[in-house]
C-alpha cells in the first residue's frame, strides 16, 4: 500500500460507527431496554456478521476518499493474490492449532472435566474454516491489518502501533460482551485485551511474511477462530473460573510477544 501524507483517522470513525450502530439494538436487548423476542434473537447472527464488516467499511471509505478513486480498485484486485509463501500459509495453522489445543487439554491434568467439541462433527471443520475466513472474523482483516496497520506502524512503530491496534480492536468488540448468546458474555474483558494484543502482534508478522498480502491475514484469522469450537476454551456458564480461557489468552499474548521480538531482530 502506498504511504499516505496524512493519517486516516476517518477509518476508526467509520469502523466504530458502522459496527456499533448495527450492534446497538442487540445490546439494548441484552441490557433489558428492548424486549427479548424470539424474532429479534433469530436475527442476532446475521446482524452480528453484518456489523463485523465495520473494519472493511472503514478501509473502503478511506481508500475511496483519502487515497483517490483508483486505490480501492487496486486494493480489491490485490485480494486475489495467494502467493503468501509457506510461512504465512503453514505457521498460523500450527501456532493457533497448538496453542488452542494446549489450553483446551491442560486443565484435565488437574482434574477439570473435558469441554466437548462445539462443532457437530470434525467433518464440518473445513467448511467452517471457510466461513470463518469469509464472514466469521477473517473479513475484519480487510481493515485492521489490510488497511490501517501500515499507517499505524509508520506513525508509531511496529511495537506501539500494533499494541494500540490490539487495544482498539478489543474495545471495538465491546458491544458483544452485552449481547445474549455470544461467547464474549462469559469472557473477562481484561483477558480479551491480552488476546487481541497477542493476535495483533502475530497477525502483523503474518502480513510481513506474506509481503503484505491482505488475504494472508484473512486466512490466518480464519484459522484462529475455527480452532475455538474444535478445542473449546470458554465455559459457557456464568461465573465459571475460565482457567482454559486464561491459559489460551496468555499463550496467545506470549506467542505474539515472541513473534515481535523475532521480527524486531530481523529488521535490525
Automatic annotation (TrEMBL):
<dbReference type="GO" id="GO:0080120">
    <property type="term" value="P:CAAX-box protein maturation"/>
</dbReference>
<feature type="transmembrane region" description="Helical">
    <location>
        <begin position="40"/>
        <end position="63"/>
    </location>
</feature>
<feature type="transmembrane region" description="Helical">
    <location>
        <begin position="84"/>
        <end position="105"/>
    </location>
</feature>
<feature type="transmembrane region" description="Helical">
    <location>
        <begin position="156"/>
        <end position="174"/>
    </location>
</feature>
<dbReference type="InterPro" id="IPR042150">
    <property type="entry name" value="MmRce1-like"/>
</dbReference>
<feature type="transmembrane region" description="Helical">
    <location>
        <begin position="218"/>
        <end position="239"/>
    </location>
</feature>
<protein>
    <submittedName>
        <fullName>CPBP family intramembrane metalloprotease</fullName>
    </submittedName>
</protein>
<keyword id="KW-0645">Protease</keyword>
<keyword id="KW-1133">Transmembrane helix</keyword>
<keyword id="KW-0472">Membrane</keyword>
<dbReference type="Pfam" id="PF02517">
    <property type="entry name" value="Rce1-like"/>
</dbReference>
<keyword id="KW-0812">Transmembrane</keyword>
<keyword id="KW-0482">Metalloprotease</keyword>
<feature type="transmembrane region" description="Helical">
    <location>
        <begin position="186"/>
        <end position="206"/>
    </location>
</feature>
<dbReference type="InterPro" id="IPR003675">
    <property type="entry name" value="Rce1/LyrA-like_dom"/>
</dbReference>
<feature type="transmembrane region" description="Helical">
    <location>
        <begin position="245"/>
        <end position="262"/>
    </location>
</feature>
<keyword id="KW-0378">Hydrolase</keyword>
<dbReference type="GO" id="GO:0008237">
    <property type="term" value="F:metallopeptidase activity"/>
</dbReference>
<feature type="transmembrane region" description="Helical">
    <location>
        <begin position="12"/>
        <end position="34"/>
    </location>
</feature>
<dbReference type="GO" id="GO:0004175">
    <property type="term" value="F:endopeptidase activity"/>
</dbReference>
<feature type="domain" description="CAAX prenyl protease 2/Lysostaphin resistance protein A-like">
    <location>
        <begin position="124"/>
        <end position="227"/>
    </location>
</feature>
<feature type="transmembrane region" description="Helical">
    <location>
        <begin position="117"/>
        <end position="135"/>
    </location>
</feature>
